[in-house]
Write a structure and sequence with these properties.
It contains 15 helices and 13 strands. By secondary structure, the protein is α/β, with parallel strands linked by helices. The radius of gyration is 20 Å and the shape is globular. It binds pyridoxal-5'-phosphate (PLP).
């Protein structure tokens, strides 16, 4: 038994999902003739109360396409210093869109409306890049699964409207935030211009992210996806997995959150742990006491077939997910308790 807590991307399709994949009707999606992809896109757009959605192979590609839709080369976007679009998409912001990032020193990956306002370059001051987009992340990845308050997002939207800025949400784990805070998808559709939602994280599909937005802005999305090499043919088999995930595997995220909170609670009580970040969803970030060797700890877990992530700067990360069973959970908790440093 391997207990893989490195990420919620490691899940395999459930039996129900495999059935859905096997029974999918497909067609050539580059001609927009794949009925299952079309159904998934329609479902996601209406779930968020927006006009259109487009299926992408990865979350990075969906975010990169969104940034391209919102910006022109030489312009600047505003994001938190830990943002996935800045740190973990291979420099795509500059490669694909010729855009720079103004990094904000936020709290656990989240920024405020005040910070957004302070970081907008004056539009008439032609020496500095023109600010044209704000990218938020919910939940935050490097911020330990932290969730925004909807009120703050609405304030950020107001700043964007007053300054003619687009507002994109990297919602790789948006469903985790919505389940944890009992929110309504439509609230997000109302506020953001574009939203990316990963189907391959906690939702458990093998691949795929949907970019959702309103038709005026999204008109060019299919061309941008083609340029990035993301036009796919009979991809309805994978869209079927995504549809299944959205229809059957959203509510169970609550289970992942419960396990994550139990892990966090135990870690807080252990003498070899210095600090645990507040745990709101399925990500637990924690730090060992400074005089202890982090690598020894990771290796000791690995020797027991338990895998966790080292995020650098002393951050250790555990992510709960569908394939992390209750049995694995008790083995992991027992192993943490028994660890001798
Ligand atoms: C996983 C993730 C993505 C997308 O990653 P891909 O591996 O390209 O699908 C985007 N944003 C955040 C915050 C993520 O955690």
């Amino acid at each position: 038994m391997i207990i893989d807590l490195r990420s919620d991307t490691v899940t395999r399709p459930t039996p129900g999902m495999l059935d859905a994949i096997m029974q999918a009707q497909t067609g050539d999606d580059v001609y927009k003739e794949d009925p299952t992809v079309n159904a998934l896109e329609h479902k996601m757009a209406s779930l968020f109360g927006m006009d259109t959605a487009l299926y992408f192979p990865t979350g990075s590609m969906a975010n990169q396409a969104a940034i391209k839709l919102h910006t022109q080369p030489s312009q600047q976007l505003i994001c938190d210093k830990w943002a996935h679009v800045y740190n973990y998409e291979g420099g795509g912001v500059s490669f694909n869109s010729g855009v720079s990032c103004k990094l904000v020193d936020g709290h656990r990956g989240m920024i405020t409306a005040k910070q957004v306002l302070e970081n907008i370059n004056p539009p008439d001051f032609y020496h500095s890049p023109l600010t044209s987009l704000v990218c938020l992340e919910n939940t935050t990845n490097k911020g330990g699964g932290a969730c925004y308050e909807l009120d703050e997002i609405i304030k950020i939207k107001k700043v964007c409207q007053e300054n003619s800025l687009g507002l994109h949400l990297d919602g790789a784990r948006l469903m985790n935030a919505i389940v944890a805070n009992k929110e309504d998808t439509k609230h997000y559709g109302n506020v953001f211009d574009t939203i990316s939602v990963c189907l391959s994280k906690g939702l458990g599909a093998p691949m795929g992210t949907v970019l959702i937005g309103n038709s005026l802005l999204m008109k060019n999305a299919i061309r941008v996806r083609k340029v990035l090499g993301g036009g796919m043919r009979q991809v309805g088999f994978m869209a079927a997995a995504g549809l299944y995930a959205v229809e059957h595997q959203v509510d169970r995220l609550e289970e992942d959150h419960k396990k994550a909170k139990q892990i966090a609670l135990l870690l807080e009580s252990l003498s070899y742990i210095k600090k645990v970040e507040p745990t709101q969803t399925n990500i637990v970030i924690f730090y060992m006491q400074e005089d202890l060797n982090q690598e020894d700890f990771i290796n000791a877990l690995a020797a027991k077939n338990i895998r966790i992530s080292d995020m650098g700067q002393g951050k250790l990360r555990v992510v709960t997910h569908h394939d992390y069973t209750s049995k694995m959970h008790s083995v992991f908790l027992d192993t943490l308790t028994a660890y001798k440093h």
